[in-house]
Fold:
Amino acid sequence: MNKTAPKKPELQLQGALDLSPSPESCPVTFRERYGHFIDGKRVAGKDADDFDTLNPATGQPIARVAAADATEVDKAVKAARKAYDKVWSKMSPADRGKYIYRIARRLQERSRELAVAETIDNGKPIRETRDVDVPLAAQHFFYYAGWADKLQYAAPGRDVRPLGVAAQVIPWNFPLLMAAWKIAPALAAGNTVVIKPAETTPITVTMLTEIFEEIDLPPGVVNVVNGAGATGAALVTHPDVDKVAFTGSTGVGRIIMRAIAGTKKKATMELGGKGANIVFADAALDQAVEGVINGIFFNQGHVCCAGSRLLVEESIAADFLDRLRRRVSTLRIGNPLDKNTDIGAINSAEQLATVERYIAIGQREGAELWQGAACARPDAGYFVMPTILTGVQQSDTVVREEIFGPVLSVLTFRTPDEAVKKANDTEYGLAAGVWTEKTSKLFDVAHRLNAGVVWANGYNLFDPASPFGGIRHSGFGREGGPAGLMPYLEVR
Amino acid sequence: MPIPYSEGERRRWRSARVDNASVLARTQRAQKRSIKTESKVRLLKLALNMIDLTTLEGQDTPQKVAALCRKASLPFQEMPDLPTVAAVCVYPNMVPHARKALGSNSPVKLAAVATAFPSGQLPLALKVEEVRKTVAMGADEIDMVIDRGAFLAGQDEKVYEEIAAVKEACGTARLKVILETGELGTLDNVASASRLAIAAGGDFIKTSTGKINPAATMETTLVMLEAIREHYLETGEMIGMKPAGGIRTAKQSLHYLVLVAETLGAGWMTNEWFRFGASSLANDILRQLARRADGHYQSPRRFSVD
Structure:
């Protein structure tokens, strides 16, 4: 019984839990080719610019995907307009609600299939698609279904009307969930939709169109066009679109805003972020570690509101980083379909290159690199080990620019004022987190942070009843809650 | 090594800060670990080997204890290669009978509860006497209870002195300090009492007597494991952990082992440093292991009650 270890004791965390592979089985039959969904019909689309969608965990193609050109986009918008004029706007709000409830229920019924498909197409771990993406998508439909016949309460004393046809462009980081965030409030408010999934992740949105078929959603109420930037441009600039909703990078958001400037179109933009997670010395430190990990390593850091900047009080910085590194050493990187995987694959070779470029820039600018996990990085596929950059400064690229990967930049502060100043020292303003057990400090700091969302002793917690959105270069407009209806309503 | 009592020490352990919601989320995440095939067999055998097979009833008899000792040494006749459990855990009066049943060279340790278990409501001198006698009768390990009333009243020095006195009375027997977390009310208190018990010289900290609901939970266990980690990283001294009460299924035991491995690492994945206080857990583990061996779930009746 040797109770004392020599010198600086350290835990043997790596290898302490040797788990056999536990892959989720695949109940999905992928199509050879994914086309569009226009006016309630599956449209094969043209061969001209079609492309592959890959499994990022292997780099192997899953299927061909059609790219809609301007003519096909026009057909989709016309179908949405016809459905709006002839069916959806004429339908009683309660009946619209019924359809949305049906979508929600069918999403739950097909949840396992959707989770597996999302994991294969996107690269994110099955643990997340199963426990977050798919259930949360269903919750959004349930939540907004309830609003469909209660819209007058969204703006009491005022008259509210739908806008018409909404053009929605969504990103690859939460393909199904972002579709739910966009489609559910639009339909509840009485609009019809043309939506374009990201080119690297078209599959679950196509499966959602199967659900529309199964529940007999009237043709044209939701239309899907696949494709890349050109398709998205044709969609948002289409003259008969009343509303543009975009989630994605700030760069593309700017292009869209320029393109629709001077038109009647209403817009909401949910763009990039550089979230600050502020940990005070009087926080519950072991729990704050969990929050920091949820903040930056959830979904491989492919989260617009990711807590990519850790601001930690200088007096506990060394201790806190030790705790953080220990916990990261227990995270499992690898096959996203394995139920024990914590860190899955980066969505594309392009994004992998971006993340690696930022890590290199960080090191060149003087950052100290630490990477760790419970197991080695897989050889095939696109993976980045959880990364912590220390010794960085406010002016460094990795502190200013959104990396959109599992890379945490660590800064320190000495006083609450300094923490607030540094947290607000960014072009973005999407999300922030504050960790302290002292309530007075919590409220004081939270109210001084310039961000659309501030989490208190938590991070990356989402609920359909809670509004989400940014300020400054993180965009405008809110999704979720009653506030999420407003971008889809005209209030008179 | 005990840390001498001082007002500064007291402030340190009383300054524990735990966020309940995050602790719950962490334990829920641990329960998402999927433990299959070879790793399941390996960890189930380890869990079996970590059990303190317990009987603490007013109606216990020498015969009942002898039966328990047999089961502890050879959990399942049909699978003789399985490990033994870690220990049997009995009342002091049953120690001589258990010692006789186990013999002197058993790999199964003999643990006894003492110090006016389960309430702890007895003068210190009598508690110390009880511990001395129990060790003299052949106990390898003593499971003591802390004076929860004193702890909740802020009389930390009294709690500390009692643990220190009992530790001394234990001699070479290992001391497990039961915090009775179900009576402490908050996770902050669990963290504080853990630090106190470690400072006063406990070799193990243990959640519960099994007589109070709630007994062991994943949340209290995580907070106690974190206190053990903090002590180890500061001093290099390992402290053992024993959740007890309410752990009945093999699956639960695997989730606990996930918490241990991910909080304290490989060093604690042995019955020297981690125990389950349980009675019905063993049979559920045996049932799962038998299922892994021959592919069929046996009736629970296939496994002897003790």
Summary: The mean pLDDT of chain B is 97. The CA atoms of residues 243 and 301 of chain B lie 26 Å apart. DSSP finds twelve helices and eight strands in chain B. Chain B touches chain A at residues 17-19, 21-23, 25-26, 32-40, 42, 226, 229, 232-233, 235-238, 257-258, 261-262, 264-267, 269, 272 (CB under 8 Å).
